[in-house]
Amino acid sequence: MLCVKQLKIIEVKIKSEAQKMDSYIYIDGWKANIRFSSAHIIPEYEKCGRLHGHTYAVHAKITGDPDSKGIIMDFSALKEILKKIVNELDHRVLVPEKSTAAKIEKNKENVKINSLGKKYVIPINDCVFLPIKSTSAENLSNYIFNKLITNIKFPKNVEKIEIGVDEGFGQGARISDKL
């Protein structure tokens, strides 16, 4: 028989209403079909300096306090805007307009990209021009984040937004910021 002094007392802390817990909604782009397939060149890295492509997935994590109905934000409104953004990128060549590593020339019919001694000529209608320096997953996350916050009015209870872009299963980049 054990005496009271020999018993270990385990303290369990229960979150009280005064202690804040993080709540968020999450959209998995692979499962929610918020995906796009595109080609790009990243001349800053020799291997990625070749014209190549990915099937990308875009993820969103929205952190905030649930409202009186227990909802942080309407999933459908968020998915609608994300799908519009990815549809602009789908089946296009992503061209970073602010690139300092590649020479980019465009006219009415085509785009000429000079990168790492290679010259690519692509029909202009097959391209989308992005106001970024490089089409890395990190920069694409930032681009999509900025497009999202300018195209949707977030409820006042939303505190933080995270956008992720995967270049295939298991590898991607995330960006987040407080509102």
Description:
With 179 residues, the protein is α+β, with helices and mostly antiparallel strands. It has a single domain, classed as 6-pyruvoyl tetrahydropterin synthase/QueD (Tetrahydropterin Synthase, Chain A), CATH 3.30.479.10. It is built from 2 helices and 10 strands, in the order E-E-E-H-E-E-E-E-E-H-E-E. It has helices at residues 75-89, 137-151, and strands spanning 24-27, 35-40, 52-64, 92-96, 103-106, 110-115, 118-123, 127-130, 158-166, 172-178. The strands form 2 sheets. Strands 1, 2, 3, 4, 8, 9 and 10 form a 7-stranded mixed sheet that branches. The chain has a 3-stranded antiparallel sheet with strand order 5-6-7, with no helix packed on it. Helix 1 packs across helix 2 (137-151). Mean pLDDT is 90; it is low at 1-18.
Defining key terms:
single chain, 179 residues, alpha+beta, Tetrahydropterin Synthase, Chain A, seven-stranded mixed β-sheet, three-stranded antiparallel β-sheet, 10 strands, 36% strand, disordered N terminus
Shape: elongated
Strand content: 35-45%
Q: What is the rounded distance between the termini?
A: 58 Å
Give the strand tally: 10
Rg over CA atoms, rounded to whole Å, is 22 Å
User: Number of helical runs?
Assistant: 2
What portion of residues is helical? 10-25%
Tell me about the biggest sheet? 7 strands, mixed
Overall tally of domains: 1
Secondary-structure element string? EEEHEEEEEHEE
Q: Would you tell me the structural class of the helices and strands?
A: alpha+beta
Mean pLDDT score: 90
CATH class: Alpha Beta
For CATH, the homologous superfamily is named as 6-pyruvoyl tetrahydropterin synthase/QueD
* CATH-level-2 architecture: 2-Layer Sandwich
Ranges with pLDDT <50 over ≥5 residues?
A: 1-18
What is the fold-level CATH name, i.e. the topology?
Tetrahydropterin Synthase, Chain A
